[in-house]
Amino acid sequence: MNLLKRQKSIVDVIFMIAVFGVFMLSALFVVLFGAKVYKRTAHDMTRNFNSRTALAYVTEKIHQHDRRGGVDITIEDGKPLLKLTQYINSDEYCTYLYEYDGYLKEVTAKGDVALLKSAGKNIIPLCDFNAVKKSDSLYYFRMMDEEGNETRFYVSLYSYTEPADEGESNDE
Predict the structure, then answer these.
(1) Is the separation of the CB atoms in 47 and 149 below 8 Å?
(2) Can you give the pTM of this predicted structure?
């Protein structure tokens, strides 16, 4: 009685190979599924980062210039420009935010200097930037990235409830 020395049959070998094959296929499907989930998650994170960065950037720039006459929207070549004005030593400086050549761009220049759109610094990729002044203290923005994802938001100014800054006119 030699129970420990059992002879292996061909069926045992085929069964072990089949179990190993099922294990390998399962592992392969888990890896492929995980890669697809990772790719989608990374894409969504990039899209959210771009839209939130653009939103936060525009909002913060507006809040930095939140004073009477500090924020305005102008139209040039049929496209809106967000014009942010500040005074330094009684000299006017304007910061412009606009879409040009597939990017949200920013350029700052002295108030009497003509705007050269190509000179702006690239902030974030955008294919469309729209700005509308809804009232004296409310602005609406719509931005679209290169994949067609839209970000829409409103920004409210607080300066219309506060007195005007020194050095600026009160002629409004």
Answers:
(1) yes
(2) 0.70
pLDDT tens digits, residue range 59-89? 999 999 888 888 999 998 889 999 999 988 8
Q: Are 64 and 82 in contact (CB under 8 A)?
A: no
Q: Of 28, 125, 142, which Cα lies nearest the Cα of 82?
A: 142
Full DSSP string of 112-130: TSPP-GGGSEEEEE-SEEE
Distance CA(79)–CA(25), nearest Å, equals: 55
Task: Give the number of residues written for the chain.
Answer: 172
Share of the chain above pLDDT 90, in %: 51
Tokens of 68: 């009477």
Beta bridge partners of 150: 144
Q: For residues 111 and 16, what is the distance between their CA atoms, to the nearest angstrom?
A: 80
Cross-sheet strand order for the sheet of 128-135: 128-135, 138-144, 150-156
Between CA 57 and CA 55 the distance in angstroms is 6
